[in-house]
Write a sequence for this structure.
């Protein structure tokens, strides 16, 4: 069974630009969560999507948004990039059905660098 | 919202030594608890989990963790570490379907 796939692996952008990251969950998984990992703040929850709906949201500004498609693939968008957005962005998937809080399976992440 | 505290961010020990990593959480409701491990250059992997039942949970690679509800703790242990256990270890709490992670423990095992 293929794992969680994130593309691209690396991105370099400049301040003010916007970026879209992609995540393909494990086959059969319907829940996709996004996390930001930085040395200072550690792993922080961004949002979770289930059946194309945002089911949960962390404490990030509105510049961070996401969506989920009918095949459970998810995209995350960050607009008006700031230097502080440089981080590893991780995607995790789980079955996410009626029994919530299932173990999540992580991808390798997208390393975003802002110049 | 839930939060997680991990102490002793950097741990250095020799092979065959015992390892214990502390994890304390705060959350008012029912929680599920996890330990994840990130080996150098690899993605986060689930080490073990606690949902309910026996508070002593056994995971992969000889790791175990004990859930003590009265202390809001979920400490990770391994009786005898190997060089291959060098990694970063994260405790996580899942309440209301969002994972809250601790800052992690960087563990280095010296051969």
């Amino acid at each position: 069974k293929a794992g969680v796939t994130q593309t691209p692996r690396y991105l370099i952008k400049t301040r003010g630009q916007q970026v879209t990251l992609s995540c393909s969950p494990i086959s059969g998984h319907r829940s996709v969560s996004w996390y930001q990992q930085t040395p200072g703040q550690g792993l922080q929850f961004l949002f979770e999507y289930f059946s194309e709906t945002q089911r949960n949201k962390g404490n990030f500004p509105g510049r961070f948004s996401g969506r989920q498609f009918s095949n459970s693939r998810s995209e995350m968008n960050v607009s008006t990039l700031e230097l502080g957005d440089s981080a590893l962005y991780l995607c995790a998937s789980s079955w996410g059905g009626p029994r919530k809080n299932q173990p999540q399976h992580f991808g390798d992440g997208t390393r975003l660098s802002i110049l | 919202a839930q939060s997680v505290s991990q102490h002793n961010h950097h741990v250095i020990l020799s092979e065959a030594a015992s390892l214990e990593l502390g994890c304390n959480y705060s959350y008012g409701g029912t929680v599920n608890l996890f330990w994840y491990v990130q080996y150098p250059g690899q993605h986060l992997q689930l080490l073990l989990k606690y949902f309910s039942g026996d508070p002593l949970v056994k995971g992969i690679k000889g790791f175990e963790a004990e859930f003590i509800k009265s202390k809001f703790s979920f400490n990770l242990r391994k009786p005898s570490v190997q060089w291959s256990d060098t990694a970063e270890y994260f405790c996580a709490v899942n309440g209301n379907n969002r994972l809250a992670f601790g800052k992690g423990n960087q563990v280095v095992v010296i051969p």
User: Anything to note?
Assistant: Chain A touches chain B at residues 3-4, 31, 33, 35, 42-45, 48, 55-56, 58, 90, 92, 96, 100-101, 103-109 (CB under 8 Å). Chain A has no helices and eleven strands.
